[in-house]
């Protein structure tokens, strides 16, 4: 049974920093939310703590996201860390070195559905997997493999942004310019965080 939290060293409901000594199994953590909710900062915070504890770790991101940098995971706040861009879940799995005990994945919503089996395989062999990503697309719909990842995860952290219209707790990413398809890569020029009441599901003109 999972402890209800809070765990030492993190906000309420966040996972322990290391496996209990009694059983060396891995687990899956999902950090999700809208844009500007601090998902990447939270992922990098957890990765940094693992690094400080000298736990072998590696950070991946999907090759699709060239928003700020080819190799680094860069948050909107400019925090960054070296990461390995991979084209698929299969490639990710093949590039986890044997000694690694902590695997971070940023922008996990852009991976194929194979990412679910990949992180399950990693967790089953003792790896702590921390996967961060958008839980909803710009239409407010569940995003890619995130729903399945949340189901199999031991820990789910849902972060909120501040609604750009009313200051409430924002759970959605409002697209400000028209776009096609579910895939979106962009920053504060194209999106703002909004709460349920202020969110408009179809593309709207920029103010
Ligand atoms: Zn609002």
What can you tell me about this protein's structure?
It is built from 4 helices and 12 strands. The chain has 207 residues and is of the alpha/beta class. It has a domain at 27-159: 3-Layer(aba) Sandwich (Rossmann fold). The protein has a 6-stranded parallel sheet, with helices on both faces. Strands 3-4 form a two-stranded antiparallel sheet. A two-stranded antiparallel ribbon has the order 9-10. Strand 3 (72-74) and strand 4 form a beta hairpin. The longest helix is centred in the first third of the chain and has 14 residues, at 39-52. The chain is globular, with a radius of gyration of 17 Å. The structure holds zinc ion. Zinc ion binds at residues 163, 165-166, 168, 194-195, 197-198. The site of zinc ion has 8 residues, from loops.
């Amino acid at each position: 049974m999972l402890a209800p939290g809070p765990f030492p060293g993190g906000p309420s409901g966040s996972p322990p920093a290391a496996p209990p000594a009694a059983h060396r199994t891995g687990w899956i953590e999902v950090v999700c939310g809208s844009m500007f909710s601090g998902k990447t900062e939270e992922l990098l915070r957890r990765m940094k703590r693992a690094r400080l504890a000298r736990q072998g770790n590696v950070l991946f991101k999907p090759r699709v996201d060239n928003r700020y940098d080819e190799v680094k995971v860069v948050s909107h706040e400019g925090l960054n860390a070296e990461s390995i861009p991979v084209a698929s879940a299969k490639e990710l799995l093949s590039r986890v070195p044997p000694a690694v005990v902590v695997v971070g994945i940023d922008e996990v919503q852009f991976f194929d559905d194979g990412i679910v089996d990949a992180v399950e395989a990693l967790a089953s062999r003792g790896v702590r997997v921390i996967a961060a990503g958008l839980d909803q697309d710009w239409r407010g719909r569940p995003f890619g493999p995130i729903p399945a990842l949340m189901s199999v995860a031991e820990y789910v952290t849902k972060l909120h942004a501040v609604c750009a219209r009313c200051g409430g707790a924002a759970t959605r990413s409002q697209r400000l310019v028209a776009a096609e398809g579910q895939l979106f890569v962009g920053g504060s020029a194209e999106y703002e965080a909004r709460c349920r009441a202020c969110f408009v599901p179809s593309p709207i003109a920029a103010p």
